[in-house]
Amino acid sequence: MDIFKDRIFAGKTVFVAGGSSGINLGIAQRFAEFGARVGLISRTQDRVAAAARTIADAGGEAMGMAADVRDYDAVAAAFAAVKDSYGDIDIVISGAAGNFLAPVVGMSSNAFKTVIDIDLLGTFNVLRASYDFIRKPGASIISITAGQAVRPVMFQAHAGAAKAGINNLTQCLAMEWGPAGIRVNAISPGPIGHTEGMARLAPSEEATRALKSKIPLRDYGTKRDIADLALFLCSDNAKYITGAIIDCDGGSVLGDASADALSVRPRG
Ligand code: NAP
Ligand code: COA
Q1: What is the DSSP secondary-structure string of 114-182?
Q2: Has residue 114 been placed in a domain?
Q3: Is the bond into 137 cis (omega within 30 degrees of 0)?
Q4: Is the pTM of this model over 0.85?
Q5: Pocket lining: 106 vs ligand 2, CB cutoff 6 Å
Q6: How are strands ordered across the β-sheet holding 91-94?
Q7: Domain extent for 129
Q8: Residue 160, in any domain of the structure
Q9: pLDDT per position as a tens digit, 191-219
Q10: Residue 256: inside a domain
Q11: Three-state secondary structure along 58-113?
Q12: Nearest CA to ligand 2 atom 34
């Protein structure tokens, strides 16, 4: 089967947490293109409703609801509403996140807690609540993590700690839920262009140029790059993959590949 030719997700239901914008909305839109019905949540009713409209306007089927991932009951209610409308949930994408650049001494306890609560507790809430609403066997779950989880980045202690927790949670759940026929994986995007995340982490042209010069593939990725990996991971082509944390990052996580990083110049 060619996952990029057939409408292989027709009749499937996808739930996307943090789906009102950016990478997560890109994933939702791509699943809808391939025939899936999509339920989106984010904190803001207007934003999530507008996101659902972009899918409907393109000929897809989507519903958007306000639910803060820090509020377990709100998340569970959103799952129930999507199941009521679209049936058992086949695919869950957990990608809600908050981030800002700050050194540890520039961060209050509440600042650190806020990012842990949105990213890590929020992912726990989405995954835990999903269990009662997903198809068993057959469901596929993807959390959106980041390279900071395994390669520490200054001014990202909060996000790095939260995403490291998400990696561990992903692998723990792959073990606990594998016997029920549920696959649990994570995607670790590198710098992705035209996103809120990169607007915050590399806010100027100079910072963007400097960052790109360090990436082995020398450019940012696209939302489509991440969405297509999600399609693959949730397709039957990936039916033996669980507990994987897959980088889609142009090699970023490997380290600084800029010419300046070489202290010794090789010949030639
Ligand atoms: P984004 O557009 O800001 O996406 C974040 C989403 O989360 C928004 O839809 C936001 O919607 C929602 N959200 C925030 N707090 C929430 C909460 N408490 N409850 C429910 N929803 C909440 O940013 P993005 O850059 O595309 O990032 C998407 C994901 O990719 C994140 O998990 C991020 O860590 C990851 N990532 C991004 C990059 C990158 O290059 N951008 C790289 C690595 C990893 P509302 O404001 O409407 O709530
Ligand atoms: N530097 C240091 N601390 C910061 C900060 C920054 N740039 N931005 C926020 N904080 C602190 C606040 O001061 C507050 O701490 P305090 O109570 O001790 O003053 C704490 O973080 C919570 O801020 P608040 O604005 O109340 O949180 P929120 O839940 O309304 O919003 C954020 C969450 C802060 C993460 C906000 O940036 C957001 O909504 N982000 C979503 C979009 C996003 O980040 N996208 C990129 C995803 S990778």
Answers
A1: HHIIIIIIHHHHHHHHHTTTB-TTT-EEEEE--GGGTS--TT-HHHHHHHHHHHHHHHHHHHHHGGGT-
A2: yes
A3: yes
A4: yes
A5: yes
A6: 61-66, 37-42, 13-17, 91-94, 140-144, 183-189, 245-248
A7: 13-251
A8: yes
A9: 999 999 999 999 999 999 999 999 999 99
A10: no
A11: CCCEEEEEECCCCCHHHHHHHHHHHHHHHCCECEEEECCCCCCCCCHHHCCHHHHH
A12: 98
Residue type, 108: S
- Residue 232, class by beta-carbon neighbours within 10 Å (0-12 exposed, 13-18 middle, 19+ buried)? middle
Q: Is the CB of 145 under 6 A from ligand 2?
A: no
Atom number, ligand 1, closest to the C-alpha of residue 51: 9
DSSP for residue 257: -
pLDDT in tens, 62-109: 999 999 999 999 999 999 999 999 999 999 999 999 999 999 999 999
Residue 267 Cα to ligand 1 midpoint, Å, equals 44
For a pocket test of ligand 2, which of 114, 158, 226 has the largest count of ligand atoms closer than 8 A to its C-beta? 114
Burial zone of 64 (CB within 10 Å; 0-12 exposed, 13-18 middle, 19+ buried):
buried
User: How many C-beta atoms lie closer than 10 Å to residue 162's C-beta?
Assistant: 27
- The total number of structural domains that make up the chain: 1
Helices (H) and strands (E) in the chain, counts: 9, 7
Q: Is 21 in the pocket of ligand 2 (CB under 6 A)?
A: no
Residues with CB under 6 A from ligand 1: 18, 20-24, 41-44, 47-48, 68-70, 95-98, 118, 122, 144, 146, 189, 191-192, 195-198
- Write the CATH number for 200: 3.40.50.720
Residue 259 maps to a domain: no
Distance 20 CA to ligand 1 centre (A): 8
Residue 194 region, left (φ>0) first, then alpha (ψ -120 to 50), else beta? left
